[in-house]
From TrEMBL:
It comes from the Eukaryota. Its main location: cytoplasm. It is an enzyme of class 2 (transferase). It is found in: Cytoplasm. It comes from Esox lucius. This is Interleukin-1 receptor-associated kinase 4. It catalyses: L-threonyl-[protein] + ATP = O-phospho-L-threonyl-[protein] + ADP + H(+); L-seryl-[protein] + ATP = O-phospho-L-seryl-[protein] + ADP + H(+).
Amino acid sequence: MNPITSTTFIRNLPYGVRRNLSDFLDPQESWKEVLVSIHKPTGEPRYSQQHLRRFEAVVLQGRSPTMELLNDWGTSNSTVGELVDILISRKLLAAASILLPDAINSCLPAIPQPALGHRVKEIVYNSDDTTRPFGRTEEQPLPDCSSEPHKEHKDTAGFLRLSFDELRRVTGNFDERPVNEGGSRLGAGGFGTVYYGHINGKPVAVKKLHSTEEISLEELSVQFNQEIQTLMTLKHENLVDMVGFSCEGHHPCLLYAYMSNGSLLDRLACLDNSPLLSWHQRCLIALGTARGLDYLHRNSHVHRDVKSGNILLDKSLVPKISDFGLTRASATRSSSTVMTERIVGTTAYMANEALRGEITPKSDIYSFGVVLLEILSGQPPVDENRDPKFLMEIKDEIDEEEMTLEDFVDQKMTDWDLPSVERTYSLASDCLNDKKNKRPLTEQVLSELEDVVKSISLEELGTK
Protein backbone atom coordinates (compact mmCIF):
# COMPACT_ATOMS: atom_id res chain seq x y z
CA MET A 1 0.00 0.00 0.00
CA ASN A 2 1.36 3.43 -0.96
CA PRO A 3 1.91 5.78 2.00
CA ILE A 4 -0.46 8.71 2.34
CA THR A 5 1.22 12.05 1.63
CA SER A 6 -0.05 15.61 1.24
CA THR A 7 -0.13 15.12 -2.55
CA THR A 8 -2.24 11.94 -2.42
CA PHE A 9 -5.53 12.48 -4.20
CA ILE A 10 -8.54 12.13 -1.91
CA ARG A 11 -10.14 9.80 -4.44
CA ASN A 12 -7.19 7.42 -3.90
CA LEU A 13 -7.58 7.19 -0.12
CA PRO A 14 -8.24 3.60 1.02
CA TYR A 15 -11.80 2.87 2.08
CA GLY A 16 -10.71 2.12 5.65
CA VAL A 17 -9.05 5.52 6.01
CA ARG A 18 -12.14 7.32 4.73
CA ARG A 19 -14.28 5.27 7.12
CA ASN A 20 -12.01 6.22 10.05
CA LEU A 21 -12.39 9.87 9.09
CA SER A 22 -16.16 9.48 9.11
CA ASP A 23 -15.94 8.13 12.69
CA PHE A 24 -14.59 11.54 13.70
CA LEU A 25 -16.52 13.83 11.35
CA ASP A 26 -20.02 12.33 11.25
CA PRO A 27 -20.69 12.91 14.98
CA GLN A 28 -21.86 16.42 15.92
CA GLU A 29 -21.96 17.13 12.15
CA SER A 30 -18.30 18.17 12.01
CA TRP A 31 -18.32 17.27 8.30
CA LYS A 32 -20.31 20.47 7.70
CA GLU A 33 -17.33 22.51 8.92
CA VAL A 34 -15.24 20.80 6.25
CA LEU A 35 -17.88 21.29 3.57
CA VAL A 36 -18.17 25.07 4.07
CA SER A 37 -14.37 25.40 3.94
CA ILE A 38 -14.00 23.80 0.52
CA HIS A 39 -13.54 26.32 -2.31
CA LYS A 40 -13.15 26.22 -6.06
CA PRO A 41 -9.89 27.45 -7.66
CA THR A 42 -11.70 30.75 -8.28
CA GLY A 43 -12.19 31.21 -4.53
CA GLU A 44 -15.95 30.59 -4.62
CA PRO A 45 -17.48 28.03 -2.25
CA ARG A 46 -17.68 24.65 -3.94
CA TYR A 47 -20.87 23.64 -2.14
CA SER A 48 -24.14 25.51 -1.75
CA GLN A 49 -26.99 25.12 0.77
CA GLN A 50 -28.67 22.82 -1.73
CA HIS A 51 -25.60 20.57 -1.69
CA LEU A 52 -25.61 20.68 2.11
CA ARG A 53 -29.22 19.49 2.28
CA ARG A 54 -28.39 16.69 -0.16
CA PHE A 55 -25.59 15.42 2.07
CA GLU A 56 -27.82 15.74 5.14
CA ALA A 57 -30.40 13.52 3.45
CA VAL A 58 -28.02 10.55 3.23
CA VAL A 59 -28.09 10.25 7.04
CA LEU A 60 -31.75 9.23 6.83
CA GLN A 61 -30.68 6.47 4.46
CA GLY A 62 -28.20 5.13 7.02
CA ARG A 63 -25.17 6.33 5.05
CA SER A 64 -22.22 8.48 6.10
CA PRO A 65 -22.29 12.14 4.99
CA THR A 66 -18.51 12.31 5.36
CA MET A 67 -18.07 9.38 2.97
CA GLU A 68 -20.44 10.99 0.47
CA LEU A 69 -18.62 14.33 0.74
CA LEU A 70 -15.20 12.75 0.21
CA ASN A 71 -16.48 10.73 -2.73
CA ASP A 72 -17.92 13.86 -4.34
CA TRP A 73 -14.96 16.14 -3.64
CA GLY A 74 -12.65 13.36 -4.74
CA THR A 75 -13.97 13.60 -8.32
CA SER A 76 -11.81 16.72 -8.64
CA ASN A 77 -8.06 16.78 -8.13
CA SER A 78 -8.41 17.59 -4.43
CA THR A 79 -5.54 16.36 -2.27
CA VAL A 80 -4.97 15.11 1.26
CA GLY A 81 -2.93 18.25 1.95
CA GLU A 82 -5.93 20.44 1.19
CA LEU A 83 -8.16 18.34 3.46
CA VAL A 84 -5.66 18.36 6.32
CA ASP A 85 -5.28 22.14 6.06
CA ILE A 86 -9.04 22.46 6.48
CA LEU A 87 -9.13 20.02 9.40
CA ILE A 88 -6.35 21.87 11.21
CA SER A 89 -7.99 25.26 10.60
CA ARG A 90 -11.19 23.88 12.11
CA LYS A 91 -9.33 22.38 15.12
CA LEU A 92 -10.34 18.87 14.03
CA LEU A 93 -6.89 17.62 14.91
CA ALA A 94 -7.78 14.06 15.84
CA ALA A 95 -9.19 13.59 12.34
CA ALA A 96 -6.14 15.27 10.76
CA SER A 97 -3.83 12.90 12.65
CA ILE A 98 -5.37 9.94 10.82
CA LEU A 99 -4.05 11.31 7.52
CA LEU A 100 -0.82 13.17 8.34
CA PRO A 101 0.22 12.71 11.98
CA ASP A 102 3.36 14.81 11.52
CA ALA A 103 1.26 17.79 10.44
CA ILE A 104 -0.04 18.28 13.99
CA ASN A 105 3.29 17.83 15.79
CA SER A 106 2.61 14.33 17.04
CA CYS A 107 3.82 13.89 20.62
CA LEU A 108 4.59 10.22 20.37
CA PRO A 109 8.01 8.58 20.61
CA ALA A 110 9.51 6.26 18.05
CA ILE A 111 10.60 3.61 20.57
CA PRO A 112 8.16 0.69 20.81
CA GLN A 113 8.01 -1.33 24.02
CA PRO A 114 7.08 -5.00 24.52
CA ALA A 115 3.55 -5.79 25.62
CA LEU A 116 2.89 -6.37 29.30
CA GLY A 117 0.86 -9.37 30.29
CA HIS A 118 -2.00 -8.02 32.37
CA ARG A 119 -4.47 -5.22 32.23
CA VAL A 120 -3.54 -1.81 33.64
CA LYS A 121 -4.96 -1.11 37.07
CA GLU A 122 -5.66 2.61 36.94
CA ILE A 123 -6.15 4.40 40.24
CA VAL A 124 -7.23 8.00 40.65
CA TYR A 125 -8.38 10.01 43.60
CA ASN A 126 -11.48 11.81 44.79
CA SER A 127 -12.51 14.95 42.92
CA ASP A 128 -14.58 17.83 44.16
CA ASP A 129 -15.74 18.64 40.62
CA THR A 130 -19.48 18.78 40.20
CA THR A 131 -21.49 18.19 37.07
CA ARG A 132 -21.03 20.93 34.52
CA PRO A 133 -23.33 20.57 31.53
CA PHE A 134 -21.83 21.52 28.21
CA GLY A 135 -24.80 21.13 25.86
CA ARG A 136 -23.28 20.60 22.42
CA THR A 137 -19.71 19.53 22.97
CA GLU A 138 -17.06 21.42 21.03
CA GLU A 139 -13.82 19.78 19.95
CA GLN A 140 -10.93 21.31 21.87
CA PRO A 141 -7.50 21.91 20.29
CA LEU A 142 -5.05 19.18 21.18
CA PRO A 143 -1.85 20.10 23.05
CA ASP A 144 1.01 21.58 21.06
CA CYS A 145 4.13 19.66 22.04
CA SER A 146 6.53 21.67 19.93
CA SER A 147 7.21 24.40 22.49
CA GLU A 148 9.26 24.15 25.67
CA PRO A 149 7.07 23.04 28.59
CA HIS A 150 7.15 24.39 32.12
CA LYS A 151 6.38 22.06 34.93
CA GLU A 152 3.84 24.38 36.57
CA HIS A 153 2.40 25.86 33.38
CA LYS A 154 -1.36 25.40 32.99
CA ASP A 155 -2.16 24.52 29.41
CA THR A 156 -5.41 24.24 27.47
CA ALA A 157 -8.53 23.79 29.59
CA GLY A 158 -6.54 24.19 32.80
CA PHE A 159 -4.45 21.01 32.51
CA LEU A 160 -0.91 20.94 33.86
CA ARG A 161 1.72 20.41 31.22
CA LEU A 162 4.85 18.85 32.67
CA SER A 163 8.22 17.79 31.39
CA PHE A 164 9.17 14.13 31.30
CA ASP A 165 12.05 14.87 33.69
CA GLU A 166 9.58 16.29 36.22
CA LEU A 167 7.45 13.14 36.00
CA ARG A 168 10.57 11.04 36.37
CA ARG A 169 11.36 12.93 39.57
CA VAL A 170 7.91 12.66 41.17
CA THR A 171 7.69 8.90 40.44
CA GLY A 172 11.15 8.03 41.75
CA ASN A 173 12.49 7.58 38.23
CA PHE A 174 9.42 5.47 37.42
CA ASP A 175 10.33 3.00 40.15
CA GLU A 176 9.14 -0.40 38.92
CA ARG A 177 8.72 -1.82 42.43
CA PRO A 178 5.08 -2.05 43.59
CA VAL A 179 3.88 0.74 45.85
CA ASN A 180 3.41 -1.66 48.76
CA GLU A 181 7.11 -2.54 48.47
CA GLY A 182 8.27 1.08 48.55
CA GLY A 183 8.22 1.67 44.79
CA SER A 184 5.90 3.67 42.52
CA ARG A 185 4.32 1.06 40.26
CA LEU A 186 0.53 0.82 40.63
CA GLY A 187 -0.21 -1.48 37.71
CA ALA A 188 0.49 -2.30 34.08
CA GLY A 189 -1.25 -3.30 30.90
CA GLY A 190 -1.16 -3.33 27.14
CA PHE A 191 -1.17 0.46 26.74
CA GLY A 192 1.30 1.38 29.46
CA THR A 193 2.28 1.39 33.11
CA VAL A 194 0.75 3.46 35.92
CA TYR A 195 2.89 5.01 38.65
CA TYR A 196 2.14 6.84 41.88
CA GLY A 197 3.47 10.35 42.50
CA HIS A 198 2.76 13.81 43.94
CA ILE A 199 2.24 17.04 42.01
CA ASN A 200 1.83 20.32 43.90
CA GLY A 201 1.26 18.35 47.09
CA LYS A 202 -1.54 16.20 45.63
CA PRO A 203 -1.30 12.47 44.86
CA VAL A 204 -1.52 11.59 41.17
CA ALA A 205 -1.46 8.50 38.99
CA VAL A 206 0.90 8.82 36.01
CA LYS A 207 0.12 6.60 33.04
CA LYS A 208 3.23 6.19 30.87
CA LEU A 209 2.10 4.94 27.46
CA HIS A 210 3.95 2.62 25.13
CA SER A 211 3.33 0.86 21.84
CA THR A 212 3.15 -2.92 21.53
CA GLU A 213 3.18 -5.53 18.79
CA GLU A 214 -0.62 -5.21 18.70
CA ILE A 215 -0.83 -1.41 19.15
CA SER A 216 1.12 0.61 16.60
CA LEU A 217 2.55 4.06 17.30
CA GLU A 218 -0.09 5.54 14.99
CA GLU A 219 -2.93 3.85 16.90
CA LEU A 220 -1.41 4.89 20.21
CA SER A 221 -1.19 8.47 18.94
CA VAL A 222 -4.89 8.48 18.14
CA GLN A 223 -5.76 7.03 21.55
CA PHE A 224 -3.52 9.49 23.41
CA ASN A 225 -5.09 12.42 21.58
CA GLN A 226 -8.58 10.95 21.95
CA GLU A 227 -8.28 10.65 25.74
CA ILE A 228 -7.04 14.24 26.05
CA GLN A 229 -9.74 15.46 23.65
CA THR A 230 -12.52 13.72 25.58
CA LEU A 231 -11.40 14.83 29.02
CA MET A 232 -10.85 18.41 27.84
CA THR A 233 -14.43 18.48 26.62
CA LEU A 234 -16.36 16.47 29.19
CA LYS A 235 -16.43 17.09 32.97
CA HIS A 236 -18.64 15.22 35.41
CA GLU A 237 -18.51 13.97 38.97
CA ASN A 238 -18.61 10.39 37.72
CA LEU A 239 -15.90 10.69 35.05
CA VAL A 240 -12.22 10.37 35.91
CA ASP A 241 -10.30 13.64 36.25
CA MET A 242 -7.23 14.23 34.12
CA VAL A 243 -4.96 16.83 35.73
CA GLY A 244 -2.20 17.02 33.15
CA PHE A 245 -0.04 15.43 30.47
CA SER A 246 3.46 15.25 29.11
CA CYS A 247 4.52 14.99 25.49
CA GLU A 248 8.23 14.85 26.18
CA GLY A 249 10.74 12.07 26.58
CA HIS A 250 10.53 8.53 25.29
CA HIS A 251 6.87 8.11 26.24
CA PRO A 252 3.77 10.35 26.28
CA CYS A 253 2.19 10.46 29.75
CA LEU A 254 -1.26 11.21 31.14
CA LEU A 255 -1.78 12.38 34.71
CA TYR A 256 -4.90 11.61 36.71
CA ALA A 257 -5.97 12.48 40.21
CA TYR A 258 -5.19 9.50 42.44
CA MET A 259 -8.10 7.33 43.54
CA SER A 260 -7.45 5.44 46.73
CA ASN A 261 -9.98 2.60 46.36
CA GLY A 262 -8.85 1.38 42.95
CA SER A 263 -11.21 -0.33 40.55
CA LEU A 264 -14.63 -1.86 41.13
CA LEU A 265 -13.22 -5.12 39.72
CA ASP A 266 -10.60 -5.27 42.48
CA ARG A 267 -12.97 -4.22 45.24
CA LEU A 268 -15.56 -6.86 44.31
CA ALA A 269 -12.73 -9.40 44.52
CA CYS A 270 -11.64 -7.91 47.90
CA LEU A 271 -8.14 -7.62 46.47
CA ASP A 272 -5.39 -6.78 48.99
CA ASN A 273 -7.79 -7.80 51.77
CA SER A 274 -10.00 -4.76 51.17
CA PRO A 275 -13.35 -4.80 53.01
CA LEU A 276 -16.39 -6.37 51.37
CA LEU A 277 -18.68 -3.97 49.52
CA SER A 278 -22.18 -4.04 51.01
CA TRP A 279 -25.27 -4.31 48.82
CA HIS A 280 -26.13 -0.66 49.49
CA GLN A 281 -22.63 0.45 48.52
CA ARG A 282 -22.79 -1.61 45.34
CA CYS A 283 -26.11 -0.05 44.34
CA LEU A 284 -24.72 3.45 44.93
CA ILE A 285 -21.72 2.59 42.76
CA ALA A 286 -24.04 1.30 40.02
CA LEU A 287 -26.10 4.49 40.25
CA GLY A 288 -23.06 6.77 40.03
CA THR A 289 -21.70 4.83 37.07
CA ALA A 290 -25.06 5.14 35.31
CA ARG A 291 -24.97 8.90 35.89
CA GLY A 292 -21.55 9.14 34.27
CA LEU A 293 -22.67 6.98 31.36
CA ASP A 294 -25.83 9.03 30.92
CA TYR A 295 -23.72 12.20 30.81
CA LEU A 296 -21.48 10.71 28.11
CA HIS A 297 -24.45 9.67 26.00
CA ARG A 298 -26.26 13.00 26.44
CA ASN A 299 -23.10 14.61 25.10
CA SER A 300 -23.00 12.24 22.12
CA HIS A 301 -20.09 10.04 23.21
CA VAL A 302 -19.82 6.25 23.25
CA HIS A 303 -17.25 4.86 25.70
CA ARG A 304 -16.81 1.45 23.99
CA ASP A 305 -15.05 -0.21 26.93
CA VAL A 306 -17.40 -0.03 29.92
CA LYS A 307 -16.28 -2.60 32.49
CA SER A 308 -15.64 -2.93 36.20
CA GLY A 309 -11.90 -2.49 35.66
CA ASN A 310 -12.61 0.97 34.19
CA ILE A 311 -14.89 2.04 37.07
CA LEU A 312 -12.64 3.64 39.68
CA LEU A 313 -13.59 4.40 43.27
CA ASP A 314 -12.53 7.39 45.35
CA LYS A 315 -12.04 7.43 49.12
CA SER A 316 -15.82 7.71 49.57
CA LEU A 317 -16.49 4.96 46.97
CA VAL A 318 -17.84 7.48 44.47
CA PRO A 319 -17.38 5.80 41.06
CA LYS A 320 -15.66 7.44 38.10
CA ILE A 321 -15.57 6.02 34.59
CA SER A 322 -12.04 5.95 33.20
CA ASP A 323 -10.00 4.98 30.14
CA PHE A 324 -11.28 7.11 27.26
CA GLY A 325 -8.72 6.09 24.65
CA LEU A 326 -11.34 4.10 22.73
CA THR A 327 -14.17 6.61 23.20
CA ARG A 328 -15.82 7.87 20.04
CA ALA A 329 -18.38 10.57 19.48
CA SER A 330 -21.63 9.24 18.05
CA ALA A 331 -24.03 11.18 15.88
CA THR A 332 -27.08 12.18 17.92
CA ARG A 333 -28.39 10.41 21.00
CA SER A 334 -28.92 6.70 21.33
CA SER A 335 -30.40 5.86 17.96
CA SER A 336 -27.19 6.58 16.09
CA THR A 337 -24.80 3.95 14.79
CA VAL A 338 -21.33 4.48 13.35
CA MET A 339 -19.36 1.67 11.72
CA THR A 340 -15.68 0.96 12.23
CA GLU A 341 -13.39 -1.65 10.70
CA ARG A 342 -11.36 -2.05 13.91
CA ILE A 343 -13.09 -4.05 16.62
CA VAL A 344 -12.10 -2.82 20.07
CA GLY A 345 -13.27 -3.43 23.62
CA THR A 346 -13.26 -6.35 26.04
CA THR A 347 -14.91 -9.52 24.76
CA ALA A 348 -16.55 -10.48 28.05
CA TYR A 349 -18.56 -7.23 27.91
CA MET A 350 -19.22 -6.87 24.19
CA ALA A 351 -22.61 -6.92 22.52
CA ASN A 352 -23.09 -8.70 19.21
CA GLU A 353 -23.22 -5.46 17.23
CA ALA A 354 -19.95 -4.26 18.82
CA LEU A 355 -18.31 -7.45 17.61
CA ARG A 356 -19.47 -6.48 14.11
CA GLY A 357 -17.84 -3.06 14.37
CA GLU A 358 -20.90 -0.95 15.20
CA ILE A 359 -20.37 2.02 17.51
CA THR A 360 -23.61 2.80 19.33
CA PRO A 361 -24.56 3.92 22.86
CA LYS A 362 -26.64 0.75 23.18
CA SER A 363 -23.39 -1.27 23.24
CA ASP A 364 -22.36 0.65 26.37
CA ILE A 365 -25.72 -0.32 27.88
CA TYR A 366 -25.00 -3.99 27.17
CA SER A 367 -21.58 -3.73 28.82
CA PHE A 368 -23.16 -2.04 31.83
CA GLY A 369 -25.53 -5.01 32.09
CA VAL A 370 -22.50 -7.27 32.60
CA VAL A 371 -21.21 -4.86 35.28
CA LEU A 372 -24.57 -5.19 37.07
CA LEU A 373 -24.17 -8.98 37.05
CA GLU A 374 -20.73 -8.53 38.62
CA ILE A 375 -22.20 -6.25 41.28
CA LEU A 376 -24.92 -8.80 42.06
CA SER A 377 -22.70 -11.85 42.16
CA GLY A 378 -19.26 -10.57 43.11
CA GLN A 379 -17.89 -12.82 40.34
CA PRO A 380 -15.46 -11.73 37.59
CA PRO A 381 -16.79 -11.27 34.03
CA VAL A 382 -14.73 -14.19 32.75
CA ASP A 383 -13.24 -17.17 34.56
CA GLU A 384 -11.46 -19.94 32.66
CA ASN A 385 -12.19 -22.38 35.51
CA ARG A 386 -15.92 -21.62 35.64
CA ASP A 387 -18.65 -23.26 33.61
CA PRO A 388 -19.92 -21.25 31.86
CA LYS A 389 -16.77 -19.19 31.41
CA PHE A 390 -18.55 -15.87 30.73
CA LEU A 391 -20.67 -14.31 33.45
CA MET A 392 -23.24 -13.11 30.91
CA GLU A 393 -23.97 -16.76 30.08
CA ILE A 394 -24.93 -17.56 33.68
CA LYS A 395 -27.94 -15.31 33.11
CA ASP A 396 -29.28 -17.95 30.73
CA GLU A 397 -29.11 -20.56 33.50
CA ILE A 398 -31.11 -18.30 35.82
CA ASP A 399 -33.65 -17.52 33.13
CA GLU A 400 -34.04 -21.25 32.41
CA GLU A 401 -34.38 -21.92 36.17
CA GLU A 402 -31.24 -24.04 36.29
CA MET A 403 -29.98 -21.65 38.98
CA THR A 404 -31.91 -19.47 41.43
CA LEU A 405 -31.27 -15.77 41.77
CA GLU A 406 -30.67 -16.30 45.48
CA ASP A 407 -27.80 -18.69 44.64
CA PHE A 408 -26.38 -16.21 42.13
CA VAL A 409 -26.16 -13.31 44.60
CA ASP A 410 -22.80 -12.83 46.32
CA GLN A 411 -23.10 -15.05 49.38
CA LYS A 412 -20.62 -12.91 51.31
CA MET A 413 -23.13 -10.04 51.48
CA THR A 414 -25.52 -9.97 54.43
CA ASP A 415 -27.55 -6.80 53.79
CA TRP A 416 -29.22 -7.60 50.48
CA ASP A 417 -32.98 -7.93 50.10
CA LEU A 418 -34.74 -9.95 47.44
CA PRO A 419 -37.00 -7.16 46.00
CA SER A 420 -34.08 -4.80 45.20
CA VAL A 421 -31.95 -7.70 43.95
CA GLU A 422 -34.78 -8.81 41.63
CA ARG A 423 -35.19 -5.28 40.26
CA THR A 424 -31.46 -4.96 39.64
CA TYR A 425 -31.28 -8.35 37.96
CA SER A 426 -34.29 -7.49 35.80
CA LEU A 427 -32.54 -4.27 34.74
CA ALA A 428 -29.36 -6.21 33.93
CA SER A 429 -31.40 -8.62 31.80
CA ASP A 430 -32.96 -5.72 29.89
CA CYS A 431 -29.50 -4.23 29.27
CA LEU A 432 -28.27 -7.60 27.96
CA ASN A 433 -31.00 -8.00 25.35
CA ASP A 434 -29.46 -9.30 22.12
CA LYS A 435 -31.56 -6.80 20.16
CA LYS A 436 -30.03 -3.39 20.80
CA ASN A 437 -33.23 -1.46 20.14
CA LYS A 438 -34.93 -3.31 23.00
CA ARG A 439 -32.30 -2.26 25.52
CA PRO A 440 -33.18 0.68 27.77
CA LEU A 441 -31.79 4.19 27.31
CA THR A 442 -29.30 5.42 29.90
CA GLU A 443 -31.92 7.72 31.43
CA GLN A 444 -34.19 4.69 31.93
CA VAL A 445 -31.34 2.77 33.55
CA LEU A 446 -30.65 5.76 35.76
CA SER A 447 -34.27 6.11 36.80
CA GLU A 448 -34.55 2.43 37.74
CA LEU A 449 -31.37 2.48 39.81
CA GLU A 450 -32.49 5.65 41.59
CA ASP A 451 -35.66 3.81 42.61
CA VAL A 452 -33.63 0.81 43.82
CA VAL A 453 -31.36 3.00 45.95
CA LYS A 454 -34.37 4.90 47.29
CA SER A 455 -36.11 1.65 48.27
CA ILE A 456 -32.97 0.42 50.09
CA SER A 457 -32.63 3.74 51.94
CA LEU A 458 -36.26 3.63 53.01
CA GLU A 459 -35.85 0.02 54.14
CA GLU A 460 -32.85 1.01 56.26
CA LEU A 461 -34.77 3.90 57.81
CA GLY A 462 -37.59 1.53 58.65
CA THR A 463 -35.27 -0.76 60.59
CA LYS A 464 -33.90 1.99 62.80
